[in-house]
Amino acid sequence: MGVRLAAVAALCALAAAPALALAQKSTEDGLRDCEKLAAVKFKGENPAFKKFAITRADVEEEKFADKVGTQFVSTIYHGKAVYQAAGGEPADVRFICLHGGLGKGAVFVTTLPR
């Protein structure tokens, strides 16, 4: 009986491992999601868009876990970033990013006047 119980416990642990790994996504993963969405959004708005990079040291992270309209948002990231269009100098901007959580990724990102 003890061997069978140990085997069942091991199988449960193996089955839970992928879920645990997903649940442990980091702030860095969330910020990369924000940068990816920003690149798509800003390129669509401005064909000369070149780069959007979040300044990691200045980011504030707020757990939200509620809906904005009909969209679930788990985390709000905001802080400083660098925006650059082709041929232009990099500009320091402030940004806000709404993240939908595991499996959703970033759902909204924008820059704000300084």
Q: Can you walk me through this structure?
A:
- This protein is an alpha+beta fold.
- It has helices at about 1-25, 25-45; strands at about 50-55, 60-70, 70-85, 90-100, 105-110.
- Strands 1, 2, 3, 4 and 5 form a 5-stranded antiparallel beta sheet that branches.
- A hairpin with a 2-residue loop joins strand 2 (about 60-70) and strand 3.
**Rg, alpha carbons:** 19 Å
The largest pleated sheet is described as: 5 strands, antiparallel
- CATH fold assignment: Nuclear Transport Factor 2, Chain: A
Strand content: 35-45%
Q: What are the low-pLDDT stretches, counting only 5+ consecutive residues below 50?
A: 5-24
Question: What's the total count of β strands?
Answer: 5
Mean pLDDT: 84
Any idea what the CATH architecture is? Roll
Counted by DSSP, the helix tally is 2
Structural class: alpha+beta
